[in-house]
Structure formats: C-alpha cells, structure tokens
Records
---
Amino acid sequence: MAQRKGQVVTVEKLGNIALVAVDNPPVNALSHAVRAALTEAIEALDADREVEVVALYAEGRTFIAGADIREFGKPPVPPFTIDVCRTLENAATPIVAVIHGTTLGGGLEIALACHARVALDGTIVGFPEVTLGLIPGGGGTQRAPRVTGITSALDLITTGKRIGAHDALTLGLIDEIASGTPRDVAISSATAVLSGNLATRRIGQLTVTPDPDAIAAATDTLRKTSPHHFAPQKCVEAVAASTLPIEDGIAAERAIFLECQASPQRAALVHAFFAERAVDKIPEKGTPPRVLEALAVIGGGTMGSGITTAALLAGFPVTLAERDGESLEKGRAAIAKNLDGAVKRGKLSEARRTDILTTSLKTTTDLADLAGADLVIEAVFEDMAVKTEIFGALDRVMKPGAVLATNTSYLDIDTIAAATERPGDVIGLHFFSPAHIMRLLEVVVAQKTTADVVATGFALAKRLGKIAVRAGVCDGFIGNRIMSHYRKVGDYLVMDGASPEAIDDALEGFGLAMGPFKVGDLAGLDIAWASRKRLAATRPADERYIPIADRICEAGWFGRKTGKGYYVYDGPTPRPNPDVAAIIAQERQKAGIVPRTFSAEEIVDRYLTAMISEGARVLDEGIALRPVDIDAVFLFGYGFPRHRGGPMFYADTIGAAALVERIKTYAAQDAYFWTVPPLLERLAAEGGTFAALNAD
Ligand code: NAI
C-alpha cells in the first residue's frame, strides 16, 4: 500500500521490497521538504525488518533535477543534502537509485550515495553547481572521483557540463542502463539486488588514487580559461580532498562549499541566473500572443541572414526578401554557411539542413510574396527613409493582424510605425549579432504597439530560444543607448593619458570578454565613424569631442578587416598600433593636454560609473522596466561578466552614495558628461538600492 510521507515522498511496500518515490513537481527539486521526508522514509525503512531492499525513484519527467531554486541564496535549513546522503549511504539495507530525466547536482549526489544506480536510457547527469559559483556540497566532489577517478571528476565538476547515460556508464557514475517506467525499473532493479544480479557497495568506502599531476594541470588550465572565477578552482581543491577518508573529505568539501557560498561571485551568479527569468515579468504577461506559424524577413545582410537562420533552426518556414537577385544569393549563402556551422556543432543533422534550405526557406525580391506571413522582421539599411518606405509597402501587402517588426538599432520606431495605417501592429525586435547565436532580443514597445503584439514578441523569443527584454523607444533603446554613453569614456581616457591597450587590459581584468578598442577593431571602426559623421551637425556644442578615432579612420585603418586599427593584426596576437600612439600624442599636444597616468582601477571605475549612470537614466525614463532588465541586456547581449551580475547589480556593491561622490569628482574635469542622474541622487539620499527596485 502506498503511504504518503508528507506530500513529496511516497513509500510503497511490495513484500520485502520498499519503493520510495520522490514526487515534487515540476522537477523534483531537492527542497527542504523533500530532504526531510526522504531522511524520515529511509530511517524508517532501514529499521523495518521486513524490508530487504529499497529502490528510490522519482515520479514525473525527471529524477531529482537539483537544488530548489527558491532556496538559492537563502541560509540552508537542515537536513542538508549531505545529511540525506549520509543517511542513504550508511543504511544497512541496500538502496538502489533509479534515475531518469536530468539528474543534476543534488540529484546526482543522492544517487551516488545509494548503493547501486540504474539509469533509464536518455538520462542526463552533471554537476552544474560551478555555474552558480558553488561546488557540489552533498558529497559529490568526494564520491564522484571514487568511481570515475580524479581526471574525469575534475572535468565534470569544474565545467558543470552534462553527459548522457552511456558516458555516465563508461565513467562508472551509474551501474546499468534500463528501459521502462521508473517504477517498473525500480521493482526490477530491487529484485536484481535481492537475487545478486545487481551488486551494491558504499562508494564512500572506496579509495581514490592520488593524482597530483591531474590536480596541478586542472589548476593551471583554469587559471588560463577562467582567470576571474572563484568556484572552478574551489572545485579542484575539493576534488583533491577526495583522497582523504570519506568523512574528512566531506568536512573539507563542506568548508570549501561555505567559502563559495559567502563569495560575492556567488551572489552575482545567482542574480544572473534569476535575471534570465525575471525579464519575463511584463505588464502584457496575461495577454495571449497572436498565432505565429510563418515568418518573413526583409534584408539578407549581416542581421537578416542571422535572424532568418535563427527562425529556420527553430522550425519556422521563412520567406526572405531582398532588393535584387544578387543580394538574395548572398543572403542565401550566408544562411547556408550558418546552418553548416550548426551541423558542425552537432545542433543540426545534414538531412535537416538540406530540408531547411530546399523547403523551409523561400526567397523573393517582391514584398507581395510576404503577404501570408504572421510576422515580418525588417533588417534593411539603418536609414529612416528606406525603412519608412518599406513599412508603407508592408502596410499595403501584409495580411490583417500580421506583426510588423523592425530590427533597427537606434531609429525612432514611432516614426516607422507612423508610416503605416496600423501602428498598433508595429514593434521593435532588436536582435544582436550574430543573430542566430546571441541570446538577447530587445522587444521595443512603441507608443501605439498593442499588448498582444508585445506578447507575440516575447512568444517569438521563447520559440527562438532567446531571452526577451522589454524596452521603450529612445535613441538606442536599453543596450545601445547605454553603450553609446560609456564608450565615450574610453576616448576621454585615451585623450587624457591612458593607452587603448591599457584600457582594454583593465576592462578585461574586470572580466569583460574583450576590451572596447579590440571590440571596435573587430566590428569595424568605419561603422561608428559613419554614425559620428551623421550626428556631427547635431552634436551639442558643450560636449567634449575626441577626434582620435576619426584620424585613425581617415588613415584607412578600420580594424581587423584592414589589418590595422587600434592594433596591428600581422601575427598570431594583435599588437598595439604604433601609428595610433603617434596620432594620440599629436592630438593631445594640439589640445594642450599633459597626459597623466590612470590605474587599472580608475579606468574600470570611470567606465562602469558611466555605464551605471546612463542605466539609472534609462530606468528613470521608463525605457527599462527594472534594474534587472538592464543587467540581462548587458549579460546576454554585451558580454558583461556573469560573475559581476550585471551593471546595476554591480552598482549596489559600490553603493549609490559612493557613486554620486565619484561622479562629482569626475565632473570637476568635465561637467557636461558627468552629471548625477536624479534616480541615483534619490537612492543615495534614501540609502536605497537598485535591488529594491527589482521587487514586484
Ligand atoms: P547590412 O548592410 O549587412 O544588410 C542590410 C541588407 O538590407 C542588405 O543586404 C541590403 O541589400 C538589404 N536591403 C537594403 N534595402 C532594401 C530594400 N529596400 N529591400 C530589401 N532589402 C534591402 O546591414 P545589417 O548590419 O544587417 O543591419 C540591418 C539592420 O539591423 C539595421 O537597421 C541595423 O541598424 C540593425 N542592426 C544591426 C546590427 C549589427 O550588429 N550589424 C545589430 C542589431 C541591429
């Protein structure tokens, strides 16, 4: 008879076999209730003389998928996972775990504490803790190496990667693969234990062969691959302790786990994890989206080909429109190349690639052919006249109810919408390059955009596997608006004494994947040059203008594509361009500036303060809903280091009052650029935080 133990763990006795089922939908997270009920159930069954074997399995789509995210960042309440694991391992009655779905983190630790493990075919296992700034804290760093050896355990635990059941079997993490329902396999596995056909053992009693070379190699590799991250090195330290007797190793693991839990990186990584989910809370949340079956894209350049690829990979039929046959062919070739990349990465089969190119993708030079699409994304030149002309034409040809989206980077979407008789259907869907890879999608809501069109933008993002952030209309929306502001700081610093490479080094030291001058060289310096020329007439007279980048472009140096920019690309590693150093020296002299030195800290402080200041303005103006939306934009679209949580999260680690002080100090040199944003002023006065503004 099934007997309820609380609501989350069920015990069922079949003669001398006891089945323990975890039932904590949706993913059987190892919540406090599950930990407590599991401990209680195992203790009771271990004392029950009728029971000769216990099989632990889970109801629903997965075995325990890991910790309960609602408990993240909160003080843990006993029994801890480590206690449950100890109870399982020390039980006198043999316990077999039957795992399925995504058995990750604490779920895998529970399984490893049982005396045998059977996985359903298709099971995925892994230790994702490192991605949240932690180490596995339920004995995983001690038990995994006892079955896999040190090298494989290091690989799994320091990367957080997931592996399939067959790899897990090869590594020794599981003993058998079976098929059937978890309950049926639990019964057959328990029977196999009783008949001696499935061996049981306590992993904690095994010993690990010390491998100091593997430990040293992992430490060394991580110093290069994850120089800024705290947790991966801590994983190595914990795995190294697995050569100790189990209880000593577990004590070492516990101490290291607590150290990670107290680290600021941990809090930032948890914030980044939640940011991905928080951005989904929008005012239009309850509104049903429009039907999305067929898509259309206009413009098959850099962005259009990437957007088309993303849509095709997500299973949409797409019609791509271009100006002429030649441009269409270029677009088609770029899409085919992107799909080839997906095949190489194992994301797409050869057959599917061919199928997509022959049936799902249609091309045309006639906008009338897009009429049947449910949503069209315009990605033509960044030119208002071209865009309004296209939207006027779309208004005439598209079926009623079609969503008309623009991928513009900066232009006013209200003006674009006004070119149609149906501005309610017009929205900005701002993708990031390369559009089939980058996860961010800014959903830009114009004045007249209707709620169901916004909901459709979010629904599309989900189908494309992207993270949608709601933004309002302004020059550059959330991301590019803030970036245009802080990028100026790089130029000011160069003019005042720092070298471009010193600035890149300082910001890479902070954790940015690439410094701003290297990014400029990569993107092509000519693009920003064109935009500066376009804006020259309207540039405010008081704004400090640094002509260095113009001089570099005038010399024909556009970055990587011309072999020269801020750096020279003539070998395996770029080197600073000496001619740029000469231009900088001349411009400083012309402006009568005596260069001074800037420490890496001051460079980072100025750069981040500018980013945060503009972020505060974007919030105050309602362009972003919450600080966390800005964090998500920078984390998922601009390579902001995850372990710093995002610019607004980082702002709270400095504090509003300190930021206001900084701005006032910088304003002594440039009062036009450095002004205190009203929101920051208010937070400083009230002792408030950006985090508090994230609350519902
Ligand atoms: P691109 O120059 O690579 O591609 C534009 C394409 O539009 C060209 O292939 C051109 O033939 C086509 N086109 C021009 N007029 C057309 C018309 N009347 N009908 C049909 N096709 C036409 O430009 P890119 O970089 O792809 O940018 C496109 C849009 O996306 C711009 O609004 C840009 O601001 C925006 N964007 C660009 C990003 C980037 O990183 N390049 C990032 C996000 C947005």
Note: The pocket of NAI is lined by residues 298-304, 321-323, 327, 379-382, 386, 390, 407-409, 430-433 (CB under 6 Å).
---
Amino acid sequence: MIILKTEEELERMRVSGRLAAELRDRVAERIEPGVTTAELDEYARDILKSMEAESAFYGYHGYPGNICISINDEVVHGIPGKRKVKAGDIVSLDVGVRYEGFVGDTARTVVVGQVDEEVMRLVAVTEEALAAGIAQARAGKRLSDISHAIESVVEMAGFAVVREFVGHGVGRNLHEDPQIPNFGPPGRGPELRPGMTLAIEPMVNLGGAGVRVLKDGWTVVTKDGKPSAHFEHTVAVGPGPAEILTCQKEKE
Ligand code: MF3
Ligand code: CO
Ligand code: CO
C-alpha cells in the first residue's frame, strides 16, 4: 500500500530531507586520502547527534553503521571500518536521517583526486540518470516511467543498471511501497499521485550488471570488480515537477 502524505506530513519530510542532505554533504567534504570509513561514520554520528536526529540505518535489520560507505567496486551497503580512502577512489555515501518520525534518504558518489575518464563518466551518467528519473515523477505518470527513464540514460551511455536493488517509497519508514526498479518498460505500475514520497536511486556499474553480497552479509560488490556509482534523492510528487526533499536549499 502506498502511503500518501498530507501537507503537514510533507512539511516534516522537508525537514528530515534537508537534514539528510546536510549530513550527506558535510560527510562528503571530509573525504580525503587517508581518512578511514569508520572516521567518516563517527563524524556522521556526531552530526546526527547535534541535529537531534537519528540514523535511519543504524540497527536496521541489524545494520552496524550510521551511514553506508561503498568504495569503487562496492555498489551499496558498505559497512564503515578500517579501510582508508585513497586518491583515485570513488566513494558512495548513503545516509538516512529520521527526524521527528520522518525519514530522508539520499546518496551521492564522490570522486577522490584524479580518476579515469571512464569512471568520471560513470559518476556523471548515474547522476544524470537520477535527474531523468525524477523528471518522470509527476502526477499522472506511471511508476515505471521513472524506471524506464533511468535505464534509458544508462543504456545510452553503455553502462549497466543493477537489478537486485531498487528505489522505494519513504516516509515514517525507511522502506515503504512501492518498489522502484531502475529498469523496465514505461507505462506500467501505479499512477503517480500528489503526496507520494519516493526515494529514487540508480545504482550503475561500469562493467556488467551482476552483483554479489560479501560474507559480512551487507556489502554489495560488482561481480567483475569494476566500479559502481550511486545517487539517490527523496522526492515528493506534486501537481507539477517533483520536489526534491533531500536538497539543502529552502526552495528552488
Ligand atoms: N539507504 C539504503 C537505501 O537507499 C538502505 C540502507 S539499509 C542499511 O534504501 F541497513 F544498510 F542501512
Ligand atoms: Co539510501
Ligand atoms: Co533508499
């Protein structure tokens, strides 16, 4: 069941969304060669504390981190630890913030120092794919119009969409209906309505689409060891263009 949010609830989603965006970007600014992912996670924990907010990830199905940090061939759900970031890495940060009962979920991939041209393109295309998906998140469109727009951008660029993990509704819970695959034909699924709040999140691989989960039970990596990028926004469907809730600006 897709939970539509009232205007009052949307107002609260705007707050948690803005906090999530701030957390994402403040942690991103701390990324530099030599920093460990555990240090980034502790920094995130301190910021959440100062916001009087909670991680929506910590303890979720037993997840041990405050945020997810996934490097290079790690796709999503990387657990913070002793690993040091180095020049030439791409680092995907995914944060979920719960504030006064509502969740904002957002991710971005950060490039550290100089990386290959092809990897730069992977990151840019993944962000473009997210924008193309958001552009379809309008009242009257169907859910899979989002999926199809994302897949089209990725395929045109010659990269591969991850199929095992999907976007989702978000609200009082981190994961609500509907699931939002990043692939598929257009014009399918429920009609989009004002009040739907969606986390749209393409995960894009430079090589093949295949992924597997490491023995830690969380970290998703590409089967071929090639890099992967991830961008995510929480958006609200309205009468006009979708409102991006996980941005730091008050209004566009
Ligand atoms: N942030 C992920 C998503 O975008 C979910 C992370 S679940 C966790 O849906 F348990 F790993 F935190
Ligand atoms: Co996320
Ligand atoms: Co999400």
Note: Helices lie at 7-29, 37-50, 117-135, 143-157.
